[in-house]
Amino acid sequence: MLTTELLSRCTFPVEGTHVQCAVSGGADSLALMLLAHAAGLHVTAVHIDHGLRHDSSLDKDVIQPIADSLGISVQIHAVRIKDGPNLEARAREARYGIFTPETMTGHTADDQAETVLINLLRGAGAQGLSAMRPGYTRPLLSLRRSETHALCTEHGITPVDDYTNADPRFLRNRVRHELLTLMTDISQRDPVPLLARTADVLRSDNELLDELAAQIDPTDALALAAAPAPLARRAIRQWLAHPYPPDLATIERVLTVARGEALACDIGENRQIRRSKQRLTLHNVG
To answer: Which letter does DSSP use for residue 67 in this model?
Structure first.
């Protein structure tokens, strides 16, 4: 049975755990709900209607009967996202403003591969190329999108066909339908497993470097200047990553202060790093 085979590759918590599953009505999220139930979890489905399609209010009519058949309660939240710039980011922000940190999503290995490529195109370093971290909140990361569709078919379910998933205005859609297709044609192989493995390797490397960087006191100018540059940069990034990590140019300016090449530097948002008696200190100015 397909359910049993897929469950063996999922990362669900122990049987009996109470969980929330984000369920859009697409094949991935419906498979998430089905598999979470099959894993013996106490599931609550959370559906967000973004209002981005004229018929989006009908998605719940696909979800509700399936949930009812499994004894799963459904929470429905309606948000309204206006069309315009940064639509994907604004919709995601709205969703995650409702989800709890423990809410499960139905991201698959295909989503992981897309995320690696998107972050690469955005100039991300190792952390961004590590993509999504496997675990309880993303239990389907080892599954393929084709498998979630197959599971729905096995259960006689017709998922929501969200036509915005083909809208070329959105970067992820172009990566999914154009870039990955071209990569497959050029390499004559399926690039998704390779990209997913690359994310796993980079994530392990990134975690090790973070651990090493955490051993450096970023306020100790001598220690910072003596450290290998990659670790020194990470130590600074960890120190100043509130609320957002500084960019590379800012980090390099801090390093010039640590090396004694400057007495102080601006790091943005009316803040400065100053050096005195071999110590770096953060100051609000202006």
So the answer is: H
Domain membership of residue 207 (yes or no) is no
Q: How many domains does the chain have?
A: 2
Same domain? For 143 and 225 the reply is: no
Q: Six-digit token pair at 162? A: 């969200």
Q: Cα dist. 43→54, 72, 97, 120, 218 in Å?
A: 29, 6, 20, 35, 44
Centre a 10 Å sphere on the Cβ of residue 184 and count the other Cβ atoms it contains.
13
pLDDT above 80 (res 243): no
Is the dihedral angle over the CA atoms 57, 63, 67, 68 positive or is it negative? positive
In which band, very low, low, confident or very high, does the pLDDT at 115 lie, cut at 50, 70 and 90? very high
Task: Tell me how far apart the alpha carbons of residues 84 and 169 are, in angstroms, rounded to a whole number.
Answer: 10
Rounded Cα distance, 157 and 66, in Å: 8
280 and 142, same domain (yes or no): no
| pTM score of the predicted model | 0.86
CA–CA gap between residue 193 and residue 127 (Å, rounded): 19
Q: Of 86, 93, 83, 79, which is closest to residue 48 (Cα–Cα)?
A: 79
- 175 within some domain: no
Give the integer Cα–Cα distance in Å for 179 and 223. Answer: 44
Distance, in Å, from the CA atom of 195 to the CA atom of 131, rounded to the nearest integer, reads 10
Q: Kindly state the tokens that stand for 32.
A: 């998430």
Question: What CATH number does residue 96 fall under?
Answer: 3.40.50.620
CA distance 245 to 279: 21
Which residue type is seen at 176? R
Assign 71 to helix, strand or coil.
Answer: coil
Range of the domain at 47: 2-107+137-161
In contact, 159 and 153? CB cutoff 8 Å: no
Q: Distance (Å, rounded) from C-alpha 252 to C-alpha 266? A: 11
